[in-house]
Design goal:
With about 120 residues, this protein is of the alpha/beta class. The chain is about 30% helix and about 30% strand. The chain has three helices and five strands.
């Protein structure tokens, strides 16, 4: 594993209309891409999207990944695809993530990953 300043992390934000990818090396954002979010996606299709996107972002195999997804049917596909292209299991943003932020909701699962990420 590389030192912390050189580690690459792929951030994936799956929204209702667009999926945004960002590659970080240390604290520096090195590249971004914006893709259309489909209604359905298999893990193989998500993997193909990542395989094609990584060279454009300047990465071969990121050290890690962070996934935020507000489209529940796509979350599993992206999580599996990220597990295939990254050196470690992806961190999934959402309820249950230990962030130090206490949620005052009866059902924290109703809070979208985008809202959790905004608060953190």
């Amino acid at each position: 594993m590389t030192d912390a300043a050189q580690r690459s992390v792929l951030a994936v934000d799956v929204g209702n209309t667009a999926t945004r990818l960002g590659l970080f090396r240390g604290e520096e954002l090195c590249g971004t891409l914006r893709l259309t979010t489909p209604e359905r996606l298999t893990s193989d299709e998500a993997w193909l999207r990542l395989r094609d996107a990584l060279p454009a972002l300047g990465a071969e195999r990121p050290d890690g990944a962070i996934l935020g997804c507000v489209v529940p049917p796509l979350s599993g596909a992206w999580r599996e695809a990220l597990s295939r292209v990254c050196a470690t299991r992806p961190l999934v943003v959402g309820p249950g993530l230990r962030s130090g932020v206490r949620m005052g909701y009866d059902d924290p699962a109703e809070v979208g990953a985008d809202r959790v990420a905004d608060v953190v």
